[in-house]
Amino acid sequence: MDVAAIKAYFDTGGVLSQKLGSFEFRPQQLEMAQAVAASLEEGHHLMVEAGTGTGKSLAYLIPAVLWALQNETRVIVSTYTKTLQEQIVNQDIPFLRDVLGLPFKYSLCLGSENYLSLRRMKRASQTHLFGNVEEDEQLNEIFHWAGRTESGFRNDLPFEPAPSVWEEVGRQKDLCMGKQCETFNSCFYFKERRKWFGAHLLIVNHHLFFANVANSGAVLPRYDAVIFDEAQNLEEAATSFLGLDISNSSLFYFLDRLYNAKTKRGTLTRLRDDLTIEIQQRVSKARIAVEGFFANLFDEFGRKERTLRFYSPPTLNNTLFIPLQDLHEALKSLEHRVTSEEEQLEVSAAATRVFEFNNTISALLNQNMKGYVYWLEVTPKKRFTRATLRGMPININEELHEQVFSKIDRAVLTSATLTTNRSFDYIKERLGCTPKEESTLDSPFDYASQALLYLPPDMPEPGEDVAQYVSALADRTLALIQATGGKTFVLFTSYDILNRMYQMLDPKLHQYQILKQGDLPPSRMIQRFKEKPSVIFGTNSFWQGVDIPGDALSSVIITKLPFDVPTEPLTEARIEDMKKRSINPFRHYQIPRAIIQLRQGFGRLIRKRTDKGVVAILDSRLTQRSYGKQFLKSLPECAQTQNLEDVKKFLSNRTGVPKV
Q1: Handedness of CA 278, 280, 281, 287 (dihedral sign)
Q2: Among residues 61, 420, 441, 470, which is most buried (max CB within 10 A)?
């Protein structure tokens, strides 16, 4: 695959221009495609930042497909957000196959828990497991859907199943009988998995990729190259995957599914063995122990919402160890007594889960994992207060280097936001990756005419009086929303400020549809946002991975620079670690991380050449603190103003871009 082959697709008058009516030659896209092709052909690592509008998905997909076809090999494309994954599968790949006629095979790889298990569904329908009408109705609907669906994929259901229902009918790795299952030949998961091994291209998410790494390559087929899109999220995805957590809700849920003394339902009630009565009693004892352990925890640390880091092992007696150990031993005894293979599998899986629960609790209470940070989260709910114990690795760069980048000859890391101050140093250090080639490609969009950056200098700083700060934010946000006629994202870094602002502004914005994160699933919010002029109040999930080209979005209001809360346990531990190594954490970690997040938020606005709008950053630190210049230097070059009237003029198209 030489340079000429790539140019034949991306150059002026090339294949794309002939087959794609809306194609516009973009030198950045051609340059990226050539760099990806070289990485695959020569076998080295590439890090490439491709600004919004570059067309980066085609710039890596076409070289990947050509290389895989030419060498009869396999390439993994890993994304962070579901939105990008759907774009690749539903738009890009059909274009490559149907329009360009590239004869490659592909598969969308999803975690096996997303698939219906025909055997478990049949068993659930026969055992009358559920105690309420709604769950029984859902099970009945799934039973009928199973006869129509070709995928068996949970997201293809015409409704969102209750977790308790899907838990009984979805595939679970430790409950799978494999080739011994009576439904193996018709199994949705295994039919799909067989396609993986014949595919040239596998589309996965970062979580599944790291599941494959953690399981020594047993989850995915062997591959020869990997392309990480949305690579700025690799560190957090890997950190989350390697973390430990356990909660009172997860323990109660597991034990109640095993045997619920109140309803007399659960897995153990299906088994016919004299020992099951004794085990049911041990389940009840374990549940009482869980109640007692978490009651002691609440007595010690309170029931109010909080996040509390444990700098040393907490002084909590592990009163769960013996009851869970007794339950594990009893389940292992039962495993050897039940006669059917299906029942043996269920009992064995339950015993393993109890063993894992016990190990996790011990590791979290004793802080056994070196290089981890430990904390408690207390979250009050309507009928229940959830307590979650967590442990996360502080740094994973060495682990990523050893387990991923040192073992893969061909790796491409790409995103619209990988650099800070046009340097890859931050992301390379965090990921333990030192690519042979680095490339920074600017966006082909004309930000000078398409976007205006509003930077009011008169806003109070976030650290000042909260009531005064929120009031000023609300007033300025109201003026901006009215200037745009809705069509606005308001991006927050905290749910508390979001809720305060919503309460203040909702009565004043009755002419617009106001959508607040948490009231609806993000996908449904986006759908409604596109249907009529709306305002979205959103936090993390709306800063990135959301694509709304066209007139539906005219303004993005960023209420605060997206610095991580320094007292959040993982952030605090990373800061401490850097100080121990004589590294300035604010300069080398906090600022670069916030810059990448800010660039993601800015990038929601301009998604195509005809888009036009305003980004307002209502944080005066951007203009009044010395580090603000680093943030501004990292944003696309566009006109800036401190005057609200300029914003109104720009949006009305009366005077075009103001000269400021």
Answers
A1: positive
A2: 61
Query: Could you give the residue range(s) of every CATH 3.40.50.300 domain in the chain?
Result: 447-652
Region label for 459, one of left (φ > 0), alpha (ψ between -120 and 50) or beta (otherwise): beta
Model confidence pLDDT, tens digit, residues 393-406 = 999 999 999 999 99
How far apart CA 601 and CA 634 sit, in angstroms, is 12
Which CATH code fits 447-652? 3.40.50.300
User: CA 214 to CA 217: how far, in whole Å?
Assistant: 8
- Distances in whole angstroms, Cα of residue 506 to Cα of each of 474, 497, 514, 615: 10, 14, 7, 21
Going by C-alpha positions, the residue among 16, 12, 11 that lies closest to residue 95 is 16
Q: Tell me the whole-structure pTM to 2 decimals.
A: 0.91
Side-chain-facing half-sphere of 623: CA atoms under 13 Å: 16
Residue with tokens 């949006």: 651
Residue type (1 letter), 458: D
170 bridge partner residues: 116
CB distance 618 to 459 below 8 Å = yes
Query: Is residue 572 within 8 Å of 586, Cβ to Cβ?
Result: no
Q: Is there a contact between 550 and 608 (Cβ–Cβ < 8 Å)?
A: yes
**Neighbouring-strand partners of residue 454:** 616, 641
At CB < 8 A and 24+ separation, what contacts does 356-361 make? 357/246, 357/251, 357/254, 357/324, 358/320, 358/321, 358/324, 358/325, 358/328, 360/244, 360/245, 360/246, 361/246, 361/318, 361/320, 361/321, 361/324, 361/389
Can you list the pairs that 9-16 forms with residues at least 24 positions away whose Cβ atoms lie under 8 Å? 9/33, 9/62, 10/59, 10/62, 15/100, 16/58
How many CA atoms within 13 Å lie on the side-chain side of 160? 4
